[in-house]
Amino acid sequence: MAGRNMSVFDSDEEDDMFDNMLTVTPRRPKVFKNRPNYFIVYTDLEFFTRFRMQKQTCETLLHLIVNDLKSQTERNRAILPATKLLLTLRFYATGNMLISVGDFVGVSKTSACTIVKQVSEAIARLRPRNIRFPENIATKQKVQENFYRVARFPMVIGAIDCTHVKIQSPGGEDAERFRNRKGFFSWNVQTICDAQLKILDIVARWPGSRHDQTIFNNSRIKSRFCNGDIPDCVILGDSGYGNSNYLLTPLSNPLTAAEKLYNESHIRTRNCVERSYGVWKRRFPILSLGMRVNAELSKIIIVATAILHNICIEEKDGDPPIELDFENVGADELPSSITDSNISINNRMRSKIINNHFAHLL
Predict the structure, then answer these.
(1) Per the UniProt record, which residue ranges are transmembrane (predicted)?
(2) Per the confidence metrics, is the pTM higher than 0.70?
(3) CA–CA separation, 45 and 55 (whole Å)
(4) Structure confidence by residue, pLDDT tens digits, 29-53
(5) What are the b/e assignments for 187-212, b being 16+ CB within 10 Å?
(6) In terms of CB atoms within 10 Å, which end of the chain has fewer, N or C?
């Protein structure tokens, strides 16, 4: 009819529509999953296999970071610090997706993501306590004596090298900077270790395409050597580094018996840094399998696992079980013509050690 306002709905349809609008979907009830106490559930061996640390070592670590892991409230079954720690250790030990490790301890994927970040940061804050270069004369002498027992190489305070830690592509315009010579994305991590495989210094901020020498040139430890803060000490590196008076590399073409003995001793003594990578990555396979987290968190995890590696050595945890065989991926080496110049002033220390020490061992 003309002049009459016609509605697109009749009265019955309007009533149904308003009834539906007023109907509130019931809220999903909270589900509290079972959170087993794995300190009790597993035997010592089962615990060590799954979390890569002994129960006693794990309890010692928990005591150091428990205040950083406590929840602000006990409401709604707050997640205990021990559960948070075990979730993170399980993540390091498997490299699984966060939803998998969350199910393992009975929390959601969102909580698992938050917990891994929280625990990793708490462990990383232990760096000044657990990753440090020998400072006083007594500790320096002890480290040098341990190295000397390996192959009679004098004055050594550490062995240096780099290893690639696999990560997912960080994306963005600079993503290709992280692609290493092997073709995958990684951080190129520099470490210096002692004869007991403990990490004394770590640099975990350079993308995989960077060369070992570039990382060392921009490191704080090189500045300390250059400034004379670490006198009467040397570190051993492979031919990927340039030889200097504090970083000794092997001779590319040894001729005399003393030079050959120097090279043999150098290789045997420096081998500890290669072994440290094997133990470190076997203890925490996430370093080899690859991290499915953002780039910033992956750097924190690298430092955190290095600290845990040192704690396990201090607590005499023993080597982790061999389940997978991971290849240690190093960085490209410089041509020997660059690292081994016989006329370089940087060869004075190397020549001095060969002539004054190894020549007398023959």
Answers:
(1) none
(2) yes
(3) 9
(4) 666 677 889 999 999 999 999 999 9
(5) bbbbbbbbbebbbbbbbbbbbbbbbb
(6) N
